[in-house]
Amino acid sequence: MNRNRRNASPRAWVAGVFCLAAALTACTGGQRRDVLMPDGAPTLVVMDFRQPLALDPLPDGWHHRTFFRTDPMRISFASKEGRPSIRLATHNSGSMLFRYTNISLDQYPTLGWDWFVEQPIASDLDETTREGDDHPARLYLKFRSPEGETHALEIIWGNRKLRAGDWKYLESFWSRSPFPHYVARGGDENAGRWHDEKVDMRALYRKHWGDPGGASLQEVALFCDTDATGTQSVAYFSAVRVERTP
User: Fold this and answer.
1) Does residue 57 have a cis bond before it (omega within 30 degrees)?
2) When comparing pLDDT for 171 and 143, which is higher?
3) Per-domain residue ranges for the chain?
4) pLDDT digit string, tens, across residues 83-108
5) How far apart are CA 11 and CA 245, in angstroms?
6) Any residues with CB less than 8 A from the CB of 1 and at least 6 apart, and which?
7) Which of 44, 88, 105, 228 is the most exposed place for a label (fewest CB within 10 A)?
8) Between the CA of residue 56 and those of 82, 158, 220, what are the distances in Å?
9) pLDDT tens track for 30-87
10) What integer is the mean pLDDT of 168-185?
């Protein structure tokens, strides 16, 4: 989503400001009730779509963040190639589905998820720029340091330019600092099938903010957007989980 455009139409600029605020603040539109906390099990499922989720209203602990003058992604549920999943579709639109958490990175450093991009973004705009900042599937992660500082990053599906292992940075509107996006997978050649992924959240945290000791994962969101490029996308997620240190 093009959260930082300067040379955009008034409508797009205002939408971008609200979207950026959502990405870099505490997302105060939702109430932090029924926060998910670990129970000591080896694996904690943060988002489980094996059964459809109630959408209106969402369960406590969940929040659908929509943006001013931007249509939200369309949320439904389907079995995709045998996997029950959530289906997130966009058409010049975008929004974020949050789950509030309080999970220690010391105890649960590994984030795992599966995703299936059915319709990638077809655009000639450079995805590393504000004008092309759309992705068919993202995971937004918000962390809290032991000192109470908050940090955020996104794990994204790259389009035509970005590939697994790449990073992209776009200057944040509020802090004028680079906002990090880690590319876990991408490319049209990887669309049309499920991919099971894992990342070390401590390594992602350490790269940008130093020692992850005592840090916690405060929010996880699914995020799909095509409002900058005016295109369409369809993506599926079956589950998002965290895993204990072996």
Assistant:
1) yes
2) 143
3) 10-243
4) 999 999 999 999 999 999 999 999 99
5) 46
6) 16, 19, 67, 94, 133, 134, 223, 225, 227, 228
7) 44
8) 26, 31, 20
9) 678 899 999 999 999 999 999 999 999 999 999 999 999 999 999 999 999 999 999 9
10) 87
For 10-243, the fitting CATH number among 3.20.20.140, 2.60.120.430, 2.60.120.10, 3.30.465.10 is 2.60.120.430
Q: Based on the number of CB atoms within 10 Å of its own CB, is 198 exposed (0-12), middle (13-18) or buried (19 or more)?
A: exposed
Cα 13 to Cα 41: distance, rounded to the nearest angstrom? 45
Residues 6+ apart with CB under 8 A from 86: 49, 53, 75, 76, 77, 97, 222, 236, 237, 238
Structure tokens belonging to residue 25:
């603040």
pLDDT at 13 over 60: no
Instruction: Quote the tokens at residue 214.
Output: 């005592």
Interatomic CA distance for residues 221 and 64, integer angstroms? 9
